[in-house]
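[job 0412] stage=fold_complex status=start
inputs:
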Amino acid sequence: MKPFHYERAKSVASACASATDPTSKFIAGGTNLLDLMKLQIETPAHLVDIGPLPIADIEETAEGGLRIGARVTNSVLAADMQVRRRYPVLSQAILAGASMQLRNKATTGGNLLQRTRCAYFYDTTKPCNKRTPGSGCAALAGLNRMNAVIGVSNDCIAAHGSDMAVAMAALDARVETVAADGATRTIPIDALYRPPGNTPHIETVLAPGELIKSVLLPPPPPGRQLYRKVRDRASYAFALVSVAAIVAREGDRVSAARVAFGGISYKPWRSAEAEAVLVGAPATRASFDAAGRAALKDAHGYGSNDFKIPLARRTLRTVLADATGVI
Amino acid sequence: MERILPFLSLLSRRRFLETAGAASLAMTSRPASAEAAAEPVSMHNVTLTVNGRRHALDLDPRTTLLDALREHLGLTGTKKGCDQGQCGACTVIVNGQRINSCLTLAVMHTGDEITTIEGLEEDGNLHPMQAAFVRHDGLQCGYCTPGQICSAVALLAEHKAGWPSYATADVATAPVLTDAEIAERMSGNICRCSAYANIVSAIREVAEGGRT
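[job 0412] stage=fold_complex status=done
writing structure:
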């Protein structure tokens, strides 16, 4: 680990002011950042510990949703009774990620901002445009079994590792931030992440020193909520593919649908295409297959991860069948 | 063998490790990396409360909680396995919750109540979970065991609080602690000797109220 200056934040304003320098980083749970600092992939000169900041509550909003403080830990959020009753897909998604020890430290804001687990991002002996801009992408022709198949570029095919964010994308979550000059803004979770293009090292729209204060959940949409994760072992592994779905059925037809995928893109991948196919369609496996084809029509495999495209379609079909009671 | 036994009885493995640990403390109380020599770092005063005792330490902010426990306080029961949050050997209990002590900085834990494997026994008696691991043979080489036991102790508290897991069919309900639930909740602790079946038995016994 490179030496750094450590600062305990005294207020949100002072934390943002301290972190405007590009060599500064906020630290909350630290479960991803410290791992990367040990490998010297992250080398901040200044760490601002936001542990003392009062942004760790879950409260109801006037519109009937929830405001989740950025420091709320993954385990507390997953165990919150409001979340379990009204947003079960979020509990399920969080509980599908990492281990209990990690969820006890990892925070809501940190989970959203975790960096990719692409093996070549971690391997400092290999080229990686995300780690070292301009060096190339070893994953393109390498062991890319865990990498993305949609929305990525020939400069970077890294996948986002979060389960929580996939459920939040399906729930239309918004991220509330505050900048060093005190300005606040609300960013739809889908717009938080920047496509890799030819600048994969720039991952979000957040400015230096801009702090995620909370995540807003609107009131839950109608329908059954489900999260399904497919991975190499039954627990404690990143997703090959995951699906968050919220589906309502009226009679024989789908009346409302939200679909988001994990493990296939640089961000939690909400599929408006799948939703458009589903709404009003008969609740049948044929409709679910059509939704899967629509969702993955622009997907492109890179060799070892070709299997993710049919796997994503089949996982969606299974989740939709479970959610609507179609056998 | 007879000549060795008196030596063993006089100097238990634990005593030997404590002595060896104290000797190595002198060498490692400052970070031994080349980087530290190259660039001066500002040391931080950190007060850690471990197993009910307060310790004032002067630490490089890079020191993980795990290294502070092992190298600075001589509490070598907590093990360093992967040092990247994957194996769970470093699991300790902080403010009632289990965490990977390798993935957190000691400076971030001023004011926290930290419990390590050394702090579980009461009045010289093994903690019920320690006794159950012995009884059920929930270990082979033993390296992962302190982390497994700290994890299992916290697991029971989480279950008592009604927390769900990925094995819980309906997350809105308080789950029953089945073997599948125990296995899922212990997935952050790897055992290379694969003593899993007996670990689950030990945890189940304590969860059900004691010796069966």
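[job 0412] summary: Residues 300 and 306 of chain A are 7 Å apart (CA to CA).
[job 0412] exit 0
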